Fold this protein.
Amino acid sequence: MSFSPRVIALLGFGEAGSAIARGLCIEGGWRGSHDGSGPKPGDNAPRRVIAIDTALDKDARGTALGKTARGLDVAIEGHYAEALREADLVICAVQGEFAHDAAAAAAPLLKKGAHYLDLCTITGKMSDEDRAEIEKGAGRYIDIAVMGGFFSQGIKAPMLVAGEDAAEMVAWMNANGFVATLLGPKPGSASSVKMLRSTLVKGIEALGVEALVTAKRQGILEEVLGCLGDADAQTLRGFITMLVRTHVVHAHRRWEEMGLVAQTLRETGVDPLMTEAIERSHRRTVDAHIAPADGQVPSLDEALEILSEKVIRGV
């Protein structure tokens, strides 16, 4: 029998929770609250969405949460209540720092076999800790990594899904307005993918701040942006892969260049925070003496093996 929940509980009713509720109730035809009449013999129980947010009515934001919920006709409570026992599917969308608290609070209230979707931004280890709580409470844990933004994409924000029941869950999600992709059966892997993607994306963000402020101060912003054609000519995946492969061969030259880059930023009055970190990173590779004598660029797998064993190593 395919997965077919009748009651969905949203833990956290901020941007993510409210966007999911809006997608389910307005676009998916889910009901916000029980009409009190109860199902007739032979009928299915109505599909309902309920919400729990501990900030409810505690401040201006909490008041706004309640207003949003009422606008969608979603029953909302400020504590983990008995209503949670009705849920076949629990979607946790609290801030990452509160993910474990939410899992621990929800676990004793879960009905046996209830699916628990962890959308929180957490590490793989934190995901394992959340899963332990949920499985203690007889729930079924699913690791979800949200790879887009709820503000602009709503329920269509792309998600990666991992866990023992991931395939069945992905099928249900895609049939109910979500955009979900199966990652695999290992819980925690989706969270780890998101974390490592963030390393790349937020790293580029920080570098962009440092470089473009300097460019703006020097009056060459458009020129700097215009010289990125080599990156534009390929995919971001291909560009990053190329940089890592060639790093093995050209780290020494690039390290020397970053010293001059840092000097350029200082001359412009910009603290080269990111640039100095890049300089140290490249120097670490230089000191490992891994540059091939024949100057041949290795494959990505070969480059990563060399870097892992001889440069990064353990901590």
Remarks:
- Residues 7-186 form a domain with the Rossmann fold fold (CATH 3.40.50.720).
